[in-house]
Amino acid sequence: GAGVSQSPSNKVTEKGKDVELRCDPISGHTALYWYRQSLGQGLEFLIYFQGNSAPDKSGLPSDRFSAERTGGSVSTLTIQRTQQEDSAVYLCASSAAGAGETQYFGPGTRLLVL
Amino acid sequence: KQEVTQIPAALSVPEGENLVLNCSFTDSAIYNLQWFRQDPGKGLTSLLLIQSSQREQTSGRLNASLDKSSGRSTLYIAASQPGDSATYLCAPCKGYALNFGKGTSLLVTP
Question: Do B34 and A45 touch (CB under 8 A)?
């Protein structure tokens, strides 16, 4: 079956612009996660959704970052007023339920802020 | 904050060797631990998940062990192949978020 998909695969933007990153989880998966992989920082957790609600937003690095999920499926991560330090690979994962389940990752969106 | 350390950072072995990748973590109150591989420019592929109540998990040539009380996990790869070349990431999970180490970069030469 289809895995987690993300779009766009690559995004180049100018500093100060807003960007939207999209994630389509595996069909039927109720839990969805966003992570960021920066050079030299490793992979860091950003936000977790169970259904359409986000019980854990603890990893969002600033108020310029927001995310939503609609219909218990597609999620969008929005970064406002992008900065060069936002350049990273943004990875989305989903799992069948929540804690204790295997997380399956998408291919990521590579964001470059000039 | 969970700190995850993976040793070695990089490893190069000839094809056919058995090898062990090490992972240690500071907070032993975890639900489970996942091992992933990441190929260059690609996302993460889940290899194994060990629940906190388990000691080990096997899939094909891969065997992962977990010693929760000491905060350690190992990934054993038997009879390595060039296709095993990738970065291997260890990720203990407490709650919902995975906490990742920086990985072991493995190169298996023909």
Answer: no
